[in-house]
Structure formats: C-alpha cells, structure tokens
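Hi P.,

Sorry for the delay on this. The queue was packed all week, but I finally got your sequence through. Input first:
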Amino acid sequence: MITEVLTAKQLKKEAPVFGQLSFDNHEQVVFCQDKDTGLKAIIGVHNTILGPALGGTRMYDYKTEWDALNDVLRLSRGMTYKAAITGLNLGGGKAVIIGDPKKIKTPELMRRFGKFVHTLGGKYYTAEDVGMETSDMDTVREVTPYVTGISESNGGAGNPSPVTAYGVYMGMKAATKFAYGSDLLSGKRILVQGIGHVGEELVRLAVEEGANVMISDISQERLEEVSANYGVKIYRGEDLYAETADIYAPCALGATINDHTIDKLKVKVIAGAANNQLANENIHGALLQKKGIVYAPDFLINAGGIINVYAEIEGYGRDQIMAKTENIYDTTLDILNKAKATNITTNEAALSIAEDRIVARKKEV
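Then the structure:
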C-alpha cells in the first residue's frame, strides 16, 4: 500500500475545510452564493453547546476565498469563547460576505443573505460587524427573525459599537492597573490602530480621561476627522509597531501581533477591540509573556457587543447591558492574576475558564 504525502498546497485542494489550520471541530460551515445579487458568503457555526451561535457578519474585500474561509473559522471560534467567558448562554458563530461593501452591498443582497441565515432555523443569529451598519441588520430582519443589533426604533438594542468600546475601555483599565498599579489612563500614551465605530468611541473615552492618544488608520479622511473631533495626533511614522508607548490598542483587523511585529513592540499593555490579535495564540502569547507585555485577551474585552445584542434575545434592558459590560474589568483582572499565579499566558488562562464552562454544560445535557 502506498501512502501519499500531500504538500500544503495539495492539502488545501483535497480538504478545503477540514484541512485548514483554523478548523477547530466546527459543527457546520455553510457556503452561500446567489448569482442575481452577487452574494458570496460563508457562515461558520463553531459550537452550540451553551446555546444558539451568535456572531456578526463581516463584509470585506478578501484577496482570496481561502482568506475569507480562514477568517470566518477563526472568528466563529473566538465567538464561542467570548460568549462562554462572559457568562452568556450562547454558542459561537460568524459570517463573512466577500466583496467591497461600498461597491456591491445592496438591500437585495442583504435580504438574500438573510434568507440563507433563515435556512439554519435559529442555529445561528447574525449581527453587525466590519463593513455593516445597523440599517443592514434591519434589512436582514425583513426576511428572518434570526438577527440582532437592529435599530432601537425597530425594537432592537441598536448599534453595539459604543458598548463594545466601553468593554475594551474597561479591559484596558484593568490591564493598566495590573501593569502599573493604577488603572488611571491620564497621561498614558495610547496607540489606537483602526478608528472605525469602535475605535473612535475608544478614542473618545481615553481622551476624556486625559490619555495622550495617537491614531492610525488606512483612511486618511477618517484620521483627519477623528483628529479634529478629539484633538488627538495622527501617526505619521513608518512603523507603528516600533513606536514607544504605554498601551497598544489594535482595533482594526486581526493578527497584527505576529512574527514580523512582536520583536518591535515597545509597549507595556496590549488591549484593543480587534478579534484574533495573536496570529498564533500559543507562540505569540508566550512571546508576549516573555517580553513582559500584559495582553488583555481580545475575545474577553471586546465582548460588549455580544452582550448588547444578546439583550434582544433575553429581553434585558440598558442598565443590565452596561453592568455586564462593566464586569469585564473584574474578569480581566481575575484572568491576569490567574495567568501570573499559574505561569501561563493570559490567553491560555482566559481559554481555560471558557472551556471549563463549555465542558460543564456538555456534561449536563
């Protein structure tokens, strides 16, 4: 019998999902296509042990379909742990739509996507993410009830971005306390990378506390706008990662902490809104620990958004949303202290707490 050893390139062709490094025993991966609207989407359902999968839809002009698949697999897995560590009875899911939202997004495309979501019968609830607006979720709601983050005028909890930013702010303050002995951001130099809805709100909160904020983004128009609104500096250097600062807040796309950037970092704290900030959880988490950089796990501190949209499913109000989000501060401190006491990375500490909750629930059913 001859056993063929496949190259990485061949492996992708032979096993397009199960062969991906990002595949983590996902329960379901749905590929959606509609010729009339130009829709090409992927829905990833990672785990539903704690409840129905919930996670936003990201619309992005991916270079390749492999990039889109990798992103949805990583993001849906992260949502499982985000819900678990926050104490929500939800599983993890995510969706990506391939394409530039400024060019191809239409109400017809969003409704067609909503119909695909509806075919899952409530196993997956979608919500707003990068490239999406609250109005898009209202459009999806026209064809399926399995959507959250709809406008308040339509009975929803509204745009989750401000709540997401508040949770990141709480996590940042907790990490600052762990690193510096005080959670005061006044006078701290903070680099915010990515000033979308969440990044801008985080800038506002930090500036109000007296932090010295510097911003970076691919959009010069957004940089000028946010700089003028909050009196913050625009980063105009050649290498943001080599900049000396107290706190680095990645709020754009993930994997900015990688083999190329990690040796350059000159910060004491990393706390931002981006998902999957560590390109490799094990390798780069350990390197941050070795460098003495306090990393606030992204799937914990950016959980304000899922707390906000979960309110639509559970029916609780604004006060409970903000109280649950504020609790991210205490949970972050608990995880940082656990990591230090057990000599593991902060990411490992957070994952272990989330996994323990999932395992406990699995034993009950």
